[in-house]
Amino acid sequence: MSAVQQVTVLGATGSIGLSTLDVIARHPERYQVFALTGFSRLAELQVLCVQHRPRYAVVPDDRSALDLQGRLRAAGLATEVLVGEEGLCAVSADAAVDCVMAAIVGAAGLRPTLAAVQAGKKVLLANKEALVMSGALFMQAVKQSGAVLLPIDSEHNAIFQCLPGDYARGLQAVGVRRVLLTASGGPFRETPLAELERVTPEQACAHPNWSMGRKISVDSASMMNKGLEMIEACWLFDARPEQIEVVIHRQSVIHSLVDYVDGSVLAQLGNPDMRTPIAHALAWPERIDSGVPPLDLFSVGRLDFERPDEQRFPCLRLAREAAQAGGSAPAMLNAANEVAVEAFLQRRICFTDIARMIESVLNARPVRAVEALDAVFEADAQARELAAQWLAGR
Ligand code: NAD
Ligand code: MG
To answer: Record-annotated residues binding Mn(2+) (predicted)?
Structure first.
């Protein structure tokens, strides 16, 4: 392999960021950390900087920049600390960067991720919200710049691995009948419906198979995560919502499947550990060790499948409707969901209010076309305002 690759990790202090650094540290001859970014937990960012010695670190404001810069200097590091969204975009687009891990959570990741795309980088996409919000514009930017977009979300990474290399010709052209998106069903798959009203943030964040950030954990519990992933899959693989079927598979061993017209169904399996898709995308088209133990099918024993229940998981229906409506709808769905999840985590609303709030926001405004990024951010802002009104008006 050629020169050492320079990697920027956006959202380095998060669950995906830390797993990425774990894989990178196993291959110092292949990867060097160019920049690390964090929004909170800046003491952890400092520790990561000492471990990985990046050229840049990015923090949210001047005060924390001054503080971190002082500490890094005292530790003898030459790392330069940059600030805010401008800093995030700079370390994503820098000419010296080969690869950007987009692992900021939520809409906050859109501009920096797009900056990496527009600069033609190899972009490892974990930040699904960015693609959900701005799908058409995002994919257009990928085409224009020649960026290499590789999915980190385990389901999309699995689908990517099960598709032929020339799938960009179109799913029908390469013989795909449909894509089967697996879902664990989260911690409330079997909770009596009447009890869902009373579940706590702690219960929602205790995922049976995956350890993840709090926002995606709540999304998994409501299955909005699968809804966002359905929209993500539509953009990544140029699929229509009807070509994607959600299958509940509680063991989280099959990460997704592709069903071909000849009756062949290809699946990707593995232990539920995000270091597998991360290592796959980092090294693609080569393969490297990820640190994940080999899959032991004998201890897995069995694989179960069931159909999702949209009464239990209304967020799935809301996401499908937003995907079908297109335009501003997915950006509004995403923004309303971000506000709702935050309010649930702060115990201001109950779990079942999440879907109620999103539905009310989506019904409050007609769907508009989004031809430029401004319109995406406008839809995002409008949904947040409507969601705040919903919260205030209860
Ligand atoms: P996390 O909450 O653990 O980490 C989020 C990171 O983003 C942190 O580094 C945080 O400092 C940073 N951040 C938060 N708000 C920010 C802001 N306003 N500006 C700049 N940075 C900000 O989340 P995670 O679980 O690592 O998830 C990251 C992304 O990856 C999400 O989009 C999630 O949907 C996706 N994803 C995660 C997993 C997983 O297993 N954790 C799996 C698939 C996809
Ligand atoms: Mg996923």
So the answer is: 153, 155, 229
